[in-house]
Design goal:
This protein has 324 residues and is an alpha/beta fold. It has two domains: 2-128 and 290-320, Quinone Oxidoreductase, Chain A, domain 1 (Alpha-Beta Complex); 133-267, Quinone Oxidoreductase, Chain A, domain 1, CATH 3.90.180. The protein has helices spanning 39-45, 122-126, 129-142, 159-171, 182-190, 204-212, 227-232, 255-260, 273-286, 301-310; strands at 2-6, 14-17, 27-36, 56-57, 61-66, 71-74, 77-78, 92-93, 105-109, 113-115, 150-153, 174-179, 195-198, 215-220, 234-242, 264-267, 292-297, 316-320. Strand 1 and strand 2 (14-17) form a beta hairpin. Helix 3 (129-142) crosses helix 4 (159-171). It is globular and about 60 Å long. The mean pLDDT is 94.
Length: 324
């Protein structure tokens, strides 16, 4: 079969023929029709991740068909464990160390596939798992967002941020966004967001607070020095959850604001098997359509990675795979 293989640090992924996997006990073989990129794949390719091994087939997200003809979506988080509050020590994400979805076939534990939502194409379904699960846990499990609340999603345009926005809108929340791109803010407004602000603007938090009156829930991906500004736009009793740290360590956070406003700050990553199934049902119930930025053939996977690395996408970047 054909696959995109990570062969070394900072080297392009190699599009090559590899041995087709054989499913073992408790596993099934999925013929992958589409796979989606995550920043995780780019970071692994750059060597910025723990436990990297070569060669490895990257890819956490995928949708395809089983040997008996069932259309399925793959749950990439394995061995979560019994505690709903955090993952077990044996937890792992498909695509490292186990070979992932950037291939014509992938083997996976039989319990880690679910029926593909009927209203989604394979490309749309492949765009859902990792980012959708992360957004669901952050917004719904951790922050317990409810209808009528005002929600702020930072860094709109990335996959998790877009799902958080779509899920919040489906819940009946009033959603606002931030971005360094006015074009991305406008696209979010066209999708249903109330408005947004460019976080590169000086004293944006003060102007945003005057415009909105503050937020009940904030979902953030960057942390860093901007986290202190997010705290400033929280309403009393607000919940703030971050699922990434691309801007570095938290800084500029006033403890006085946090304790006086009785704020709750959560960290979150991925989600449990139960949350994955709940997320899929939520998507089906509300007929949520994943935002796909671009679709590339598997053979052009490096171009897809370059697009993700530049951070210009609005939505998920997908690889279309024509299995043998």
């Amino acid at each position: 079969m054909k696959a995109l293989v990570l062969v070394g640090k900072d080297l392009p992924l190699s599009y090559q023929s590899v041995e087709k996997p054989v499913a073992g006990a408790g596993e099934i073989l999925v013929q992958v029709h589409a796979a989606a990129l995550n920043h995780r794949d780019v970071w692994i390719a750059k060597g910025l991740y723990g436990g990297i091994k070569y060669p490895t087939i990257l890819g956490s997200d995928g949708a395809g068909v089983t040997a008996d003809g069932k259309e399925v979506i793959i749950h990439p988080g394995m061995n979560w464990g019994d505690n709903p509050h955090f993952q077990s020590k044996s937890y792992e994400i498909l695509g490292l160390p186990s070979d992932g979805t950037f291939a014509e076939y992938v083997k996976i534990g039989a319990k880690y596939v679910s029926p593909k939502p009927a209203h989604l194409s394979f490309e749309q379904a492949a765009a859902l798992p990792l980012a959708g699960l992360t957004a669901y846990r952050a917004l719904i499990t951790r922050c317990q967002a409810r209808a009528g609340e005002r929600v702020l999603i930072s860094g709109i345009g990335g996959g998790v941020a877009l799902y958080a926005m779509q899920f919040a809108l489906a819940l009946g929340c009033e959603v606002w966004v931030t971005s360094s791109s006015e074009a991305k803010i406008q696209k979010a407004v066209e999708m249903g967001a109330k408005g947004g602000v460019n976080y590169k603007t000086e004293q944006w938090s003060k102007a945003f607070m005057a415009k909105t009156g503050g937020f009940d829930v904030i979902i953030d991906s960057a942390a860093g020095s901007g986290f202190g500004e997010l705290v400033k736009v929280c309403k009393p009793g607000a919940r703030l959850c971050f699922y990434g740290g691309t801007a570095g360590a938290l800084s500029g956070v006033s403890p006085q604001i946090v304790f006086y406003k009785q704020l709750s700050i959560f960290g979150s990553t991925m989600g449990s098997d139960i949350e994955f199934e709940a997320m899929i049902r939520f998507v089906e119930k509300h007929k949520i359509m994943p935002v796909v930025d671009a679709v590339y053939p598997l053979s052009e996977g490096n171009a897809a990675c370059q697009r993700m690395d530049k951070g210009q996408q609005f939505g998920k970047i997908v690889l279309k795979i024509n299995a043998l």
